[in-house]
Each structure stands twice: as structure tokens, then as C-alpha cells.
Amino acid sequence: MNIKSLPKKIGNDLKADANAIFHALDIASDGSLSLIKESIVKSYQGFLDAKFNNLILDMANNNIKTDELLNFINSSSHSDREFMSSLIIKNLHADNCITIFILAKLWENKIKNGSLNYYESSLFTNINTFTHEDFEIYYYAIQHMIQPEKTNMAPYILVPLENEYYILAMNKFCSFGILQTAYTADGSYYKEENKIYIFFFKTPYSDTLYQILDEYFKNTPPS
């Protein structure tokens, strides 16, 4: 036996075993397993198609020409193929439309610039860790950032005590380099009566992400 064919044969054997196990379980469940599988395919295939279509539509809105898009998709560059593979996976895992919108912006920059900068790469790598609410909090934070009169104080946002989860969202953006944590004598935040002060600095990419979110929120009708 040619050793080159061994992995393929092992893979085929495992696939056959998996199919046999599936059929055995299906028989044991009186066909319920097949019904579940068919329902998942029927219910979600259209949804997955729609997510990818939204990505392409967002790219079209970025004024990317069809030939530019096709050239990138058909690129033989290892970097482009790796990016495209990751993009498809991240798009499928996206649980909100903002993520898909940002992915399209990052894809546009990859096509036009040949690579992503440090901040774009960090955002691309970690984008599926952000929720819709995280992006809303970020958008709010940049809009309501307070510059203190005293030069020895860091900028901050002021939120009601019940919005303590803002701290978690802001820390997330800081941990990925999109914002920078500001430490004061009381720490990166402190609570006062019914208010929370959250301190942070902007990075060179902070306004860029804000502009992307501003474009999204201004052109997306409220749900």
C-alpha cells in the first residue's frame, strides 16, 4: 500500500464509522435523528446564505469593484487565502450585523492595502468576541468621553451604577489594543454613590473604529 494513501484511507474509514453510528442511532430513535438533521439544514441553510450575501452587499457598498473582489478570491497568495478562509469562518460565526459590516470594511482594507495594520489585525482576530451591545457601548463611550479640566486626570465616561457591565465591555476593547486602559489613584474605574467613572485613553485606531460604527448606526434603521 502506498503510504501517501494512508491518511485518505483512514479518513474514509472514520467517515464510514461515523455514518454507521449515525444510522444505528437513527434507527434506535425511530428516525428522529434524521428529522433533526433535515430540520437544521432546512432552517439554517438559508440563514447562512443570507449572512454571506450581507457580507458581499456590504463590500459592494464599500465601492469594491467586482473584478477586484474576484481577483482577491482567486488569488494564489498564501496570505490572501488564509485571510479569505478566516473571513468565511468569522462571517459564519458572526452573531450580529455590525460584525459582518466591520468584516466587510476590513476585507476592503486588505484588498486595497495588501495587508491589515496592527489594530485592524487585532480587531479581525478577535471580532467574534464582541457582541452587538459591546459595539453600542464603544460608540457611546467615544461620543460621551469627558476630557477633565485637570491635566493630571485621565479622560473618562460617567455611567449609572446599574450599567456596571460597561466596565467589562470597555476592558475588552482595551485588552485588544483598540482603547488603552487609564489607571488613576483609584484604579481604572471607581464608583461614587449611584455613578461609575470609567477611565481610558484613545489609541490611533479608536476614531477609525468609531467612524465605521457611526456609518453603520446612521444607515441602519432601529430594530
UniProtKB/TrEMBL annotation:
Domain of life per record: Bacteria
Protein's recorded name: Uncharacterized protein
Species annotation: Sulfurospirillum multivorans (Dehalospirillum multivorans)
